[in-house]
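User: Let's play a game. I give you a shape written as tokens, and you guess the letters that built it. Ready? Here's round one.
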């Protein structure tokens, strides 16, 4: 069975009310070099078209989408969520897919979202696949939001990793082209890169993330390293349950951040489920301290990680060596426990 088929085979579509948004919350982020409250909104749409066709190996966001969502449904979600705005100057808009896909977010709804949020917030961040971005969409978007940032899930700059680990067929060339369109229109660019896609050893994942960061730097204003977390009904979830995948160690995330500190782009990481078994984690004792340090680094509140100490760092180092000896990415500690 091909990777595309295996990824899609894990999907478990569910029924959701298309008039209900998925979630909203407030978190800390940087705006003009200052730590501010950022408003996060996840609208419920029909989801990413690529997820419907096959999807990325680690992405479970397709599990929260509705099968069909009319423009009026998204408009209703917007009406409801706007009442929850409490003065946050920065807003992040997610759709579990692509903001600039006209089939997912119709142009009239996209413009209304940008207008309403642009009137309330100083900066609006949206997300899309690079090859879906068009000049006319972008030029209209920057008219509606004074400060617009477009986030792209590049994941890796290695074609081999993209094709055989992430299950994506778009890479750095498409990303560079989309980034140029953004910069020409006056929008900034955020690049998402993965730390430890499936089938990579701990050492391989560190090297891939570091190399990808340097490759993407010329096209990015912000680079966010996303440690893979285990989301339900994904290929990563299948591997995890079989002991063939472990989310990255937090020490690996720290190393990636340390080795990309020289980039011109702002480097950050916000580990989803950090410190939990399905997210990036260490031994359990030091997890909260390391996650906090990573968050502080991302917000510009610390410059390095030299003060972090834990005995498990030696275990992490041995883990990296053991995976190489095993000639595969299986979790050696899980194997020993069984």
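Assistant: Ready! My guess for every position:
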């Amino acid at each position: 069975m091909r990777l595309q088929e295996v990824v899609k085979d894990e999907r478990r579509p569910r029924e959701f009310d298309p008039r209900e948004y998925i979630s909203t919350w407030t978190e800390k982020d940087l705006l003009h070099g200052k730590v501010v409250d950022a408003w996060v909104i996840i609208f419920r749409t029909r989801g990413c078209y690529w997820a419907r066709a096959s999807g990325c190996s680690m992405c479970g966001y397709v599990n929260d989408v509705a099968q069909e969502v009319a423009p009026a449904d998204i408009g209703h979600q917007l009406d409801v969520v706007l009442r929850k705005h409490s003065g946050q100057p920065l807003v992040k808009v997610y759709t579990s897919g692509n903001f600039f896909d006209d089939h997912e977010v119709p142009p009239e709804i996209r413009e209304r979202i940008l207008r309403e949020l642009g009137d309330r917030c100083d900066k609006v961040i949206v997300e899309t696949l690079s090859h879906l971005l068009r000049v006319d969409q972008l030029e209209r978007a920057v008219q509606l939001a004074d400060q617009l940032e477009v986030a792209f899930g590049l994941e890796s700059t290695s074609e081999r990793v993209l094709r055989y680990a992430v299950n994506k067929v778009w890479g750095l060339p498409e990303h560079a082209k989309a980034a140029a369109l953004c910069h020409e229109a006056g929008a900034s660019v955020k690049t998402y890169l993965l730390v430890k896609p499936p089938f990579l050893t701990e050492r391989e994942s560190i090297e891939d993330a570091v190399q990808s960061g340097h490759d993407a730097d010329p096209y990015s204003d912000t680079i966010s390293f996303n440690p893979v977390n285990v989301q339900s009904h994904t290929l990563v979830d299948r591997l995890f349950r079989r002991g063939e995948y472990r989310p990255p160690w937090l020490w690996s995330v720290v190393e990636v951040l340390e080795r990309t500190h020289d980039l011109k782009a702002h480097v950050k990481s916000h580990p989803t489920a950090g410190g939990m078994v399905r997210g990036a984690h260490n031994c359990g004792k030091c997890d909260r301290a390391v996650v906090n340090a990573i968050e502080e680094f991302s917000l510009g509140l610390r410059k390095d990680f030299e003060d972090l100490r834990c005995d498990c760092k030696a275990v992490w180092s041995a883990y990296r060596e053991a995976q190489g000896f095993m000639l595969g990415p299986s979790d050696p500690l899980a194997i020993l426990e069984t």
